[in-house]
Amino acid sequence: MNARRYLKAAAILLAGVIALAAAGDAFAAEQKVGIRGQKGPVTSKGVKKGEKTEALKVQLPKAMFEGTPKNIKPASTLEKYIDKPRPSFMVPAGCTNVALKKTVTSSDSMPIIGELELVTDGDKEGTDGSYVELGPGLQWVQIDLKEKCALFAILLWHYHAEGRVYHDAVIQVSDDADFIEGVKTVYNNDFDNSSGLGIGKGLEFIEDYRGRLIDAGGVTGRYLRLYSAGNTSNDQNHYIEVEVFGKPAK
Known about the structure:
- The chain is α+β, with helices and mostly antiparallel strands.
- Helix content is about 15%, strand content about 30%.
- It is built from 1 helix and 12 strands; from the N terminus they run αββββββββββββ.
- It starts with a helix and ends with a strand.
């Protein structure tokens, strides 16, 4: 009887340790790329010691909904939704949106709705006519920055007319337009490698008007590729806008 109680207590303790470790991993992942829920200001990992910095200036679109979405259940792979202003994000002085008006290509050359140029046209509103809709399954959009740049912050708006989660969000940078050589992954929340791009340490997140701010850490490259594989509302893929803050690489 005592042995059974000991084994049961040990099992409970082990489960608690595992849960605590998972929570710690999730928190670390959120702090690594997150910015949401973190007390600011936050400085890009790409800033060099002694380098002059400034707060990233982002013009946000109008909010399309209020409060936490009710149709999305909490999960260990989902970042906790926090409806609060994002803390200041510090980047090297002189960074601009190097993606604005740049050429966009995609795995889906014939979008269901909209045109690919909407991804970099500067319009971040969540209304009809502001987004491009790609087909189901794993799809990507790719931005040609026209020159090799050092990147410090990426802001991504998939769709924010309602709260939803886009799956297998992966962002990569390369100097190779075909993304065969020299590929660097900036963000990956594909927790089960269903995209075939590796298991990510990031957390899935609920879309809203603030967009997703990702620390690019000073990574250099000419091309930026963003993947997704459907969302919690349907199996389509959407992009309203992608902003990439950086400067030409020296």
